[in-house]
């Protein structure tokens, strides 16, 4: 006779619940030999199921020894036991325990999910086997039905198919006919007999004497003790050579090779299960996802709005002219020229200024503006007192980024030849030309008109060649629209030796505007012997402040978004905990089919990640539309921004995607590890 494949020696089992302990097995010794058909009988509550769970490697004895094919149970770790359950044991339960969300075929193939033999290449083999089993148990044509569409007898036969799909050596059946009528019972019993005839070991729990009589041997359990043959408690040495083929080291090595394939397979299976269960609880899942959806959406929208506001900002205010600063005598009023300007004659155009510009040429371009003394500026129909401003370089006009409403800027020829031409600031037109001046109706008015500038040393006549559009004076240059510009050379030619009192500075790319202006004002102040102080207008300064303010608002909105995210995540965790509680029995079943802790963890985690990524994806799509909707609204309502810009907000999208997955992992971790750690026998007992 073969050595026993499962041997129990004086096994005790104690349940501990609610602070109380209950001894369900009080010293059971028995052997299950290979190829035997054993019935375990006894009154209800005597410990039969407890014993079967131990034989079926679902729980470990509290005390006593147990050997599997001669090897002590303690030499197996949990994963190895799971693998044994998967490959060598097949369970049949009284209550069928089919997974309602999976169809018949998927239920039968469920053990394959946890098999080291899994993977898409081999699944074809098992598919064929599943169909063969369906045929054998008269279930042809039911492969695609769901458990709720089957009769009790059919369900139990499906459960038997599932128990057989991995071709196990041992079948463990806990009152498999308990929920069936006599006809179906007989059929199930016949199936078990046939399996025995094929050489499988059958362990069957029953309290039906008829059914027990089908077995070769009966183990009678009463009050946690084996009372079938008291003398049987032997001291025989455990037989060491393995009798049934356990997965060998060789087999494991082979599977190490396609570990990734394995993981992919498990992941795919988990995905199917998770997807199905989310679909089953659509409303619940959707409602749970909403919290996370809002959180992730706000991340994306905050980033998108940041981009829109940033773009609008750059377009409206932060032009390249903003990098440019102006240096002038500080008159305490924030104007370029004020009361105190008479205190400083300025830098001499031919002597002092070139030295000044050269001194700083490594850091930026310093250009002078010439200002005449106040003169009477006249046209044929109007006049006002002002000064002319000499512009020293054609670039200067371009860097002002002031478009012309009519006409043109001076050409370089006019610049360097000193041609007396003038470009008017928008507001000067009103005072220089009478409202009723008939020339106003001409399209190029006032281009081509002449103006004269008079003071003690007559400056002469200038031809108007262009008028600037109204310029924004909110950042810095407050006189911008009251100015009349002319090429520097044209003024110099008429003024003789003169002085510059006003400078523009454009820092080189890597030079900080503020730094440079500080150096320049210090330089000028030292030139005056410290007597005078100079000021600079750096428009970027003001913008930085506004920008900082916007950033604060963004941070506040971001914080609220983060809170939403957190609340959403808690929602997911909550739902997953409920899911685990609801599916305790199912988790027990999966474990009995050979699911390792890692499998169960991945199963629950996948569901959490799937839900959160779904919420995340929806948020990404929504966010994209919301952002671009805002952008469109801006382009419609703000005339200066009428060009529509696509808002991609890449960081928002990346963060959104990442956060959604991380939320799934983070908030699913607790429910998943709870599920993984649950005791399989306890799970199977839960209602
Ligand atoms: P049987 O299958 O023979 O009807 P069981 O093996 O299911 O009996 O249970 C044996 C005894 O252990 C019963 O008296 C039952 O009340 C008790 N029992 C089962 N599960 C638990 C548990 N989780 N906690 C405490 N007592 C338990
Ligand atoms: Mg029972």
Number of strands: 23
Bin the strand percentage: 15-25%
What compounds sit in this structure?
A: adenosine-5'-diphosphate, magnesium ion
Head-to-tail CA distance between termini: 41 Å
Radius of gyration, CA atoms, in whole angstroms: 45 Å
The number of distinct helices, counting runs of at least 4 residues, comes to 21
The level of helicity is 40-55%
The SS-based structural class is alpha+beta
Largest sheet: 13 strands, mixed
Chain-averaged pLDDT: 84
Cα shape: rod-shaped
Low-confidence stretches: 230-257
How would you characterize the overall build of this protein?
With 687 residues, the chain is of the alpha+beta class. 47% of the residues lie in helices and 19% in strands. The protein has 21 helices and 23 strands. The strands form three sheets. Strands 11, 12, 13, 14, 15, 16, 17, 18, 19, 20, 21, 22 and 23 form a 13-stranded mixed sheet that branches. Helix 6 (182-197) links the parallel strand 7 and strand 8. The protein is rod-shaped, with a radius of gyration of 45 Å. It starts with a strand and ends with a helix. Bound molecules: adenosine-5'-diphosphate (ADP) and magnesium ion (MG). Residues 15, 17, 22, 24, 42, 44-50, 682, 685 line the site of adenosine-5'-diphosphate.
List the helices and strands and how they pair.
Layout: E1 4-17, E2 20-33, E3 37-41, H1 48-55, E4 63-68, E5 71-72, H2 78-88, E6 89-93, H3 104-113, H4 120-136, H5 152-164, E7 170-174, H6 182-197, E8 201-205, H7 209-212, E9 217-222, E10 225-226, H8 249-257, H9 259-280, H10 282-316, E11 325-329, E12 347-348, H11 352-359, E13 364-371, E14 375-378, E15 383-386, E16 388-391, H12 394-400, E17 404-407, H13 412-417, E18 421-424, H14 428-432, E19 450-454, E20 460-468, E21 484-487, H15 488-495, E22 499-507, H16 513-527, E23 534-537, H17 539-582, H18 584-592, H19 597-637, H20 650-677, H21 680-685
Parallel strand pairs: 3-8, 3-9, 6-7, 7-8, 16-21, 18-20
Antiparallel strand pairs: 1-2, 1-4, 4-5, 9-10, 11-22, 11-23, 12-22, 13-16, 13-22, 14-15, 14-19, 17-20, 18-21, 19-20
Helix pairs in contact: 3-4, 3-5, 5-6, 9-19, 10-17, 10-19, 10-20, 17-19, 17-20, 19-20
Bound molecules: adenosine-5'-diphosphate (ADP) and magnesium ion.
């Amino acid at each position: 006779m073969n050595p026993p494949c499962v041997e129990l020696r004086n096994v005790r089992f104690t349940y501990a619940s609610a602070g109380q302990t209950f001894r369900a097995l009080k010293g059971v010794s028995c052997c299950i030999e290979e190829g035997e058909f054993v019935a375990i009988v006894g009154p209800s509550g005597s410990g039969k199921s407890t014993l079967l769970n131990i034989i079926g490697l679902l729980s470990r004895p509290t005390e006593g020894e147990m050997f599997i094919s001669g090897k002590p149970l303690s030499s197996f770790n949990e994963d190895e036991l799971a693998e044994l359950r998967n490959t060598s044991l097949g369970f049949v339960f009284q209550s069928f325990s089919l997974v309602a969300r999976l169809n018949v075929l998927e239920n039968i193939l469920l053990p394959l999910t946890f098999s080291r033999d899994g993977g898409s290449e081999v699944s074809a083999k098992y598919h064929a086997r599943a169909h063969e089993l369906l045929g054998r148990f008269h279930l042809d044509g039911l492969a695609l039905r769901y458990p709720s569409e089957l009769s009790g007898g059919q369900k139990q036969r499906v459960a038997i198919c599932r128990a057989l799909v991995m071709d196990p050596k041992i079948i463990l059946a806990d009152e498999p006919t308990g929920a069936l009528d006599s006809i179906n019972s007989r059929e199930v019993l016949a199936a078990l007999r046939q399996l025995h005839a094929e050489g499988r070991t059958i362990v069957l729990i029953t309290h039906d004497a008829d059914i027990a009589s089908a077995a070769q041997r009966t183990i009678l359990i009463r009050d946690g003790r084996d009372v079938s043959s008291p003398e049987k408690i032997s001291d025989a040495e455990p037989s060491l050579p393995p009798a049934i083929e356990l997965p060998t080291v060789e087999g494991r090595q082979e599977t190490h090779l396609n570990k990734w394939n394995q993981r992919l397979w498990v992941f795919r299976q988990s995905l199917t299960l998770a997807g199905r269960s989310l679909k089953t609880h659509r409303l619940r899942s959707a409602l749970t996802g909403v919290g996370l959806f809002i959180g992730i959406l706000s991340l994306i929208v905050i980033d998108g709005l940041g981009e829109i506001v940033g773009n609008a900002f750059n377009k409206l205010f932060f032009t390249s002219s903003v990098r440019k600063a102006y240096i002038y005598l500080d008159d305490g009023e924030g104007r370029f020229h004020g009361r105190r300007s008479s205190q400083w004659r300025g830098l001499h155009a031919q002597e002092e200024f070139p030295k000044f510009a050269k001194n700083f040429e490594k850091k930026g371009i310093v250009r002078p503006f010439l200002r005449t003394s106040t003169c009477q500026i006249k046209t044929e129909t109007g006049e006002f007192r002002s000064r002319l401003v000499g512009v020293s370089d054609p670039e200067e006009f371009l860097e002002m980024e002031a478009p012309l409403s009519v006409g043109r800027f001076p050409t370089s020829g006019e610049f360097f030849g000193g041609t007396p031409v003038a470009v008017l600031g928008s507001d000067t037109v009103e005072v220089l030309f009478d409202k009723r001046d008939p020339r106003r109706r001409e399209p190029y008015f006032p281009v081509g008109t002449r103006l004269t500038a008079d003071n003690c040393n007559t400056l002469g006549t200038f031809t108007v060649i262009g008028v600037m559009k109204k310029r924004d004076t909110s950042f810095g240059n407050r006189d911008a629209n009251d100015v009349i510009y002319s090429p520097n050379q044209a003024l110099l030619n008429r003024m003789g030796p003169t002085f510059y009192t006003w400078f523009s500075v454009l820092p080189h790319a890597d030079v900080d505007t503020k730094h440079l202006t500080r150096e320049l004002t210090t330089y000028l102040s030292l030139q005056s012997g410290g007597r005078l102080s100079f000021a600079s207008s750096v428009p970027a300064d003001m913008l930085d402040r506004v920008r900082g303010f916007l950033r604060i608002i963004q941070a506040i909105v971001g914080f609220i978004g983060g809170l939403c995210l957190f609340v959403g995540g808690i929602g997911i965790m909550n739902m997953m905990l409920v899911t685990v509680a609801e599916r305790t029995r199912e988790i027990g079943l999966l474990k009995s089919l050979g699911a390792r802790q890692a499998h169960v963890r991945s199963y629950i985690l996948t569901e959490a990640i799937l839900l959160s990524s779904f919420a995340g994806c929806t948020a990404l799509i929504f966010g994209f539309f919301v952002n671009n909707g805002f952008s469109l609204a801006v382009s419609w309502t703000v005339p200066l921004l009428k060009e529509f810009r696509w808002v991609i907000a890449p960081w928002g999208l990346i963060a959104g995607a990442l956060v959604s997955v991380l939320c799934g992992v983070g908030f699913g971790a607790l429910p998943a590890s709870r599920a993984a750690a649950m005791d399989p026998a306890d799970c199977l007992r839960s209602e």
